[in-house]
Amino acid sequence: MAQLWLSCFLLPALVVSVAANVAPKFLANMTSVILPEDLPVGAQAFWLVAEDQDNDPLTYGMSGPNAYFFAVTPKTGEVKLASALDYETLYTFKVTISVSDPYIQVQREMLVIVEDRNDNAPVFQNTAFSTSINETLPVGSVVFSVLAVDKDMGSAGMVVYSIEKVIPSTGDSEHLFRILANGSIVLNGSLSYNNKSAFYQLELKACDLGGMYHNTFTIQCSLPVFLSISVVDQPDLDPQFVREFYSASVAEDAAKGTSVLTVEAVDGDKGINDPVIYSISYSTRPGWFDIGADGVIRVNGSLDREQLLEADEEVQLQVTATETHLNIYGQEAKVSIWVTVRVMDVNDHKPEFYNCSLPACTFTPEEAQVNFTGYVDEHASPRIPIDDLTMVVYDPDKGSNGTFLLSLGGPDAEAFSVSPERAVGSASVQVLVRVSALVDYERQTAMAVQVVATDSVSQNFSVAMVTIHLRDINDHRPTFPQSLYVLTVPEHSATGSVVTDSIHATDPDTGAWGQITYSLLPGNGADLFQVDPVSGTVTVRNGELLDRESQAVYYLTLQATDGGNLSSSTTLQIHLLDINDNAPVVSGSYNIFVQEEEGNVSVTIQDINDNLPIFNQSSYNFTVKEEDPGVLVGVVKAWDADQTEANNRISFSLSGSGANYFMIRGLVLGAGWAEGYLRLPPDVSLDYETQPVFNLTVSAENPDPQGGETIVDVCVNVKDVNDNPPTLDVASLRGIRVAENGSQHGQVAVVVASDVDTSAQLEIQLVNILCTKAGVDVGSLCWGWFSVAANGSVYINQSKAIDYEACDLVTLVVRACDLATDPGFQAYSNNGSLLITIEDVNDNAPYFLPENKTFVIIPELVLPNREVASVRARDDDSGNNGVILFSILRVDFISKDGATIPFQGVFSIFTSSEADVFAGSIQPVTSLDSTLQGTYQVTVQARDRPSLGPFLEATTTLNLFTVDQSYRSRLQFSTPKEEVGANRQAINAALTQATRTTVYIVDIQDIDSAARARPHSYLDAYFVFPNGSALTLDELSVMIRNDQDSLTQLLQLGLVVLGSQESQESDLSKQLISVIIGLGVALLLVLVIMTMAFVCVRKSYNRKLQAMKAAKEARKTAAGVMPSAPAIPGTNMYNTERANPMLNLPNKDLGLEYLSPSNDLDSVSVNSLDDNSVDVDKNSQEIKEHRPPHTPPEPDPEPLSVVLLGRQAGASGQLEGPSYTNAGLDTTDL
To answer: Hey, which of 23, 570, 799, 1220 would disulfide with 1168, CB 3.0 to 4.6 Å?
Structure first.
């Protein structure tokens, strides 16, 4: 009651004071303010400025629905941003600002204008982008359109689109698409489902043009979105054969329907995979082969390799693969490839004989012969070939099937040999003399041999009969049956009287060689007798001179000469028969005493040997031909003056060096005369080369032992006869070496011969030429390479034709011939052989051997220094000239988009050799980049290493196709790895049959027993086509299922699961890992939830405790009682100890640190603690009524507030203090 009266007393005074006070007022510019939306919360926004004429202390405040954006310092008027501004949500709003002195409060509305800043990034309207386009879509066409929106204004709201990334990221895909300013994505290049990619993913980004944000020019960009583009394949490509080259071989006796090889073509449009029809559009041998719908080329007729000799034994087929449907242009989609079928030789022919000369032979069946003729001189030297024999043996088969052996048979085979003895294909055949003595015309004029050609494999043979006609030579002298004939003829026989007609010489030679001419050699009596040259009849030539008393015996030499001037002689001893043709004659002076009375007196005068023989010449010189046995050398003549035959009989004897080569036979002529016939014994002949002169002494003596002797010198000169054959100088036949291929010219050797005869005229003759290669006779290949002049000079005829690779040894069979050899003597030397070794020169470049291989690189399998490809080469030269060294000239990588990337040092090559084939092993130097997809092109050089001269080289390029790990496929088997390994070949064969690929098995392992289900082991492999492409897992699965035979076989081998490597990596292990990860995540979530619950419970408990304390304190405090200490304006602190009026706790212990100053209600609550605030209830009501849409709904009544409201009212029945609701002190849970 006292208080009521006090109020009534003070009210008039207060009214008076207010009426006298002037209200404060805001400055004129306090009507609006412009704030940037990026102003940080807590930053100074602006100042409230007012003036008061009374200079009273002013208190500033702000109210209204949007007042929560700001916090006002009541004493200073500083306004800070309490809640973030957003131009795009509320670009302008109004707040009510107020200023009051201790007596009056003034309010005004202020317009807040929010200034836009670049605080928003563009946002795509839809983030799930995908589309499909045809691969034939024209360049410039719109593929897709996107839209991004930026809420900012001006340049900060203008959107610019960009393509950040294109997957796959290849050279051609980088600029394959472009995006326009309106968001339209345009095709910027051509597509290809097969050659480029069937799928693209574009990473798109939208950015604004930039604007100010936090006082910096900033460009805002959206989060990236992805556009998936699927390329739809169109039938615009022709089919493709899976191999670049097809070749096969088939035996020429293959039956009709025999499978030769399988070609396979696939639709170039992989997304369509149109079926393909095969046909043979051209064949070099029509009708021999056909092709089925399955691409199998089969034999369709009889084959004959021999018809293909000019075509390298190959048939070229042009196989065309045509798709069953037309392409997008309305045309047939087709492709052609050449297929080479080599017809392999079968030994279906035997060697046959032909009468022709290589190389002009045509070898038609009609020309085959079995009868041949030839000619040869009798007693020809060994290795002399038969003349006029043109025989060729031909076997059209190849290699060992065409190799045949030559031999001789028949009655006269022993006398001859055949050359060559072994040949391949075709060869000129020579029949040579082997045993000269058996080739005798006198024994037989014709000889016959059989030349047998036997196939070395089948042993089939052909026989040709060769009739050899012998040509007679003068190899026999005429011979007399006796060496001495004793004949008689009466003295003084009439001229022409026949002495004998029964002496005849015989000569087995025929023709002119056997025609005998008789003659009497000069000598004593040759003028008394004569011989008929044809019949050999000896007759008296001059009978008057035949006087026994003058010479009782004559020794004549009868010579028989044949048509070749070969001769022999015999001695005719002709005795004259005495006839009574002389009267007695007495000569000389004698004293004769007779007895008287005798009528007849007979006087006998007895001679004594008182005279020595006297030669009619002081010396004698005779000449005799050598090699002429039994010939008369000469006649010496002596006379003895004694008158009786007993005293004047003369006998001759020989002495001196070489006297034993001669004999002398005396002939008494009568009247003291005698002749000594010096001759050679019938079995002795002289040799000029041994002793050209004989000095003899002939003695003439009487038979009386008491008689003396007379000697005379006889010189016998041996006349040289060309009777010795020449000889070849062995030193001149030493082998020589000649380089091939035009390296040498002119004379290379001289064959030297000699002859002991003085009249020799020598020439060197080439008898035969033998051509061999590695010891095997190669026929007549080298016959024209060399020539031999008559003087023995050996010249190179065809320098360019000399070829070491065809013939490495030429044997020239030569002989020396003496053109002046007397008839009847050997004119030829023995045959000699000049060996000419052909030296190899570097005239052949190396050449690479064809390899029907495809080299595939699987980076996963390729290790450094492990072979990934190989080449083989050969050089036909020998020695160092044939040694090959490989090197790598260049390595290029051709990516799938066609780009070429040069590499250096990626590969190395190592050279090895086996026999005459050199191999190059290509190995990577380092690990290869497994991300590269395409083909390595490796250029390899093969170079020889000659000892002299420049090297020769050849190059080839290999394609090494790469297959990345994504093509690795896994096959799981129900059998252990050991059994899978044992069946590896069968598995490989079945997979190859099903896929028509090369199968590269990478690994075979057991599946871990802990994770083992049905499969026990797995096999990882790659399936690669010859062109380097590989099968994916899906394609592999389809192909295996389409081949039921292979599938059945694989199932029998234990196949149970097909899968890629990634998808097959121990599913149970993955599940276990997933479970563990899930449990870990769940445990983490539980921990987070428990931690949050603990924090929340703790805060809730603190709130409850504080609320209980506040309620207790509030009940102790009387309503309307103000603390005595001065209040701190703008705070809820009332004393210097900073005690809270409700909780009586220091401010730092209030526990309100979790409250955000951006909470509008909190701001109101805090500011409302100032007891200078007026109309708090009204303002609070306005806040409730005009709360912005985003403001949370009104909370439930708070218990602490209810307690405070329940305090005892003052005397006026109303609360005297300010009323408010503090949402921060929430005790609802209590």
So the answer is: 1220
Percent of the chain surpassing pLDDT 70: 84
Please, what is the angle between helix 1176-1185 and helix 1160-1168, to 10°?
170
End-to-end CA distance of the chain: 38
In 3D space, the residue among 330, 336, 192, 326 whose CA is nearest the CA of residue 269 turns out to be: 192
Q: Are 274 and 326 in contact (CB under 8 A)?
A: no
Distance CA 381, CA 366 (A): 36
Question: Within a 13 Å sphere around the CA of 896, how many CA atoms are in the beta-carbon half?
Answer: 21
Mean pLDDT value across residues 1074-1099: 86
Q: What is the DSSP string of 798-838?
A: -TTT--TTT-SEEEEEEEEEETTPPTTS--BPPPEEEEEEE
* pLDDT at residue 460 greater than cutoff 50: yes
Question: What local confidence, expressed as pLDDT, does residue 1165 receive?
Answer: 39
Contacts of 545 (CB under 8 A, 6+ apart): 527, 528
DSSP 732: G
Q: Read off the pLDDT of each residue in 690-704 and give the average, rounded to a whole number.
A: 86
Residues with Cβ within 8 Å of residue 515, at least 6 apart in sequence: 507, 562, 563
Rounded Cα distance between 131 and 576, Å, is: 150
Q: How far apart are CA 1230 and CA 355, in angstroms?
A: 134
Q: How far is CA 350 from the centre of its chain?
A: 37
Q: Say if CB 571 and CB 557 are below 8 A apart.
A: yes
DSSP E strands in 534-605: the ranges are: 538-540, 553-561, 567-577
Tokens encoding 23 = 């209200």
Q: What does 585-633 look like in DSSP terms, one character per residue? A: ---S-------TT-S-----PPP------EESSSEEEEEEETT-TT-EE
**Residue 1076: its H or E element:** helix 1067-1116
* Residue 568 contacts residue 505 (beta carbons within 8 Å): yes
pLDDT (0 to 100) of residue 1170: 40
Per-residue pLDDT for 653 more than 50?
yes
pLDDT by residue (tens digit) across 264-281?
A: 998 888 778 889 999 999
CA atoms within 13 A on the CB side of 438: 15
Write the CA distances from 1076 to 1069, 1071, 1096, integer angstroms: 11, 9, 30
Which residues, at least 6 apart from 640, have a Cβ–Cβ distance to it below 8 Å? Answer: 611, 612, 613, 614, 647, 648, 649, 650, 672, 674, 702
Give the DSSP H/E element, type plus range, for residue 226. strand 225-232
Q: How far apart are CA 167 and CA 155, in angstroms?
A: 31
> Rounded distance, CA 270 to CA 856, Å?
21
Structure tokens at 399: 């290699």
Q: Is 33 in contact with 113 (CB distance < 8 Å)?
A: yes
Q: What are phi and psi of 977, to 5 degrees?
A: -65, -30
474-528 tens-digit pLDDT: 888 899 999 889 999 898 888 888 989 989 999 888 888 888 999 988 777 778 8
- Distant-in-sequence, close-in-space partners of 593: CB < 8 Å, separation ≥ 6: none
Q: How many CB atoms neighbour CB 1189 within 10 A? A: 5
Residue 1176 corresponds to which tokens in the numbers above?
């708090």
47, pLDDT greater than 50: yes
Residues 6 or more apart whose Cβ sits within 8 Å of residue 15: none
8 Å CB contact between 373 and 470: no
Which residues have C-beta within 8 Å of that of residue 276, sequence separation ≥ 6?
239, 265, 266, 267, 295, 321, 322, 323, 324
Q: Where are the beta strands (DSSP E) in 640-689?
A: 651-656, 663-670, 673-679
DSSP 8-state class, residue 310: G
Question: Averaged over 582-597, what is the pLDDT?
Answer: 63
Q: Is pLDDT larger for residue 1124 or for residue 625?
A: 625
